[in-house]
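Subject: sequence -> structure tokens, single chain

Hey, anyone have a minute? Need the predicted structure for the following. Not urgent.
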Amino acid sequence: MDIIANYGTTLVLVAALFGFLMAWGIGANDVANAMGTSVGTKSLTIRQAIIIAMIFEFAGAYLAGGEVTATIRNGIIDSNAFADTPDLLVLGMIASLLAAGAWLILASYFGWPVSTTHSIIGAIVGFAVVSIGPEAVQWSKFGGIVGSWIITPAISGVIAYFMFISVQKLIFNTDDPLNNAKRYVPFYMFLTALVICLVTIKKGLTHVGLHLTDGEGILLSIAISIAVAFAGWIYIRGQQYNPQDDSKMHFANVEKVFGILMIITACAMAFAHGSNDVANAIGPLSAVASIVAAGGEIGGSSHIAWWILPLGGIGIVIGLATMGEKVMATVGTGITHLTPSRGFAAQLATAATVVIASGTGLPISTTQTLVGAVMGVGLARGIAALNLGVLRNIVVSWVITLPAGAILAIAIFYVLQICFS
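Reply:
Had a minute. Here:
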């Protein structure tokens, strides 16, 4: 308690710095995963992907990030176990931010697509066990989170598989793929817009003072999605293609149409990622700020300070812009060959899965969700379409991440105790 009383402002500033570092790592690693399919299919250049991420990642983090933040902040460890020693919780959260952020930046430097969720959860569990004991960890909730690491890639993989199969059957495996693309792509545009609108209106806009009922939110989402689909229909109808082209050129023209759709799904993925994964950076930071503001009292819930969500959003964007290229290459071209139609199926499946998880408050790994979706698309073409060597390396990096976060957090926690004792 004396540490909080004597160094309260310093602790918040240090936590803010390490929280920004963590957000930087999220941007370099997880956002690169989110945008990798768009860049890998050449639907977007790296510069365009960064611009889209700047807008939609920040919007997702600021508008819809609060739901998951509550789970990260209060769900993994039992805050009541730290009631008599809040200074240990504060130092532990700061150590967790630095540990997870450092690991993510290291992994991004080498191009390893790891999980930010694994990193921060491993770090929090690590310091909790050495500071209080295993009883400080709510292992039942931890088990649920671990289960989600298996379930969510499976869900996204199934969605991506059937999404791509539908594109094949309705468009590519027909006598007139180009005209069928003009017919069905607006429906896919509607579906994509609906995914992003639902989470924005129903979950996000409460943070800016707009409260809608479930019925109003659904109706408004449908109206906006119809407008997007109509605009897409007009644009696609206006494109001129040569009907004398051979079948290969027809397929190329269809992929151009899906290239347009990839831009929309890139926006949806960026928003969905920002809404879910910003919690990995701002959750521990919010815990530190609220405990210090309350003079060491650990409350069951607390209001997120106004500056925390923007800090996380800005860090994510800067991380992508400075270090995201290597992980983009791994995800966009390493797992399987992606075309705009395949990338669309994978990205929409990932966005839908992340949005569902964000709305229910369950922290998931965007990395594993996207890899599951890309695998689903690859399996639709046969297992030979997958680069099993790259997948093996990715899985190994996932296994290493959890203990790496825990070990780093434990070491940093002890250093912080010495510094503030």
